[in-house]
Specification:
Blueprint: E1 7-9, E2 13-14, H1 29-41, E3 59-61, H2 66-75, E4 85-87, H3 98-108
Parallel strand pairs: 3-4
Antiparallel strand pairs: 1-2
């Protein structure tokens, strides 16, 4: 890959920043992340008419099991597309805070930039 971009999605999602997608349970956060963001963004497709710059990513789920995440991916027909998953059961107990969590993610997917 070339040098890291300034934006992952031009004008919307700056690189090297922390981003939070919030909403009530069942509001579609996971569906949006998989279907609209990851599936399209990782292919370099525009997101909301903004140029995207895909980089290697890791999707970390700390509130849903791997089987729950897999069911969502099956429902969206994205099981073969969204593969860089890390779920709570994959992580040691000390990964309850950000720094140990990020270190563990780097062990699993050393090339991750998102």
């Amino acid at each position: 890959m070339s040098e890291s971009p300034e934006f992952l999605i031009e004008g919307i999602l700056p690189a090297n920043e922390v981003h939070l997608l919030g909403g009530s349970s069942g509001s579609g956060k996971t569906t949006f992340t998989f279907q609209v963001f990851l599936a399209e963004w990782q292919q370099g497709n525009p997101i909301f008419d903004h140029i995207s710059h895909p980089v290697p990513y890791s999707y970390v789920s700390l509130d849903r099991s791997r089987s729950s995440v897999t069911r969502t991916l099956q429902r969206l027909n994205l099981v073969d597309q969204i593969t860089r998953l890390i779920c709570q059961e994959d992580l040691p107990e000390e990964c309850l805070t950000v720094t140990p969590l990020l270190k563990e993610v780097r062990k699993i997917h050393p090339d991750s930039e998102l």
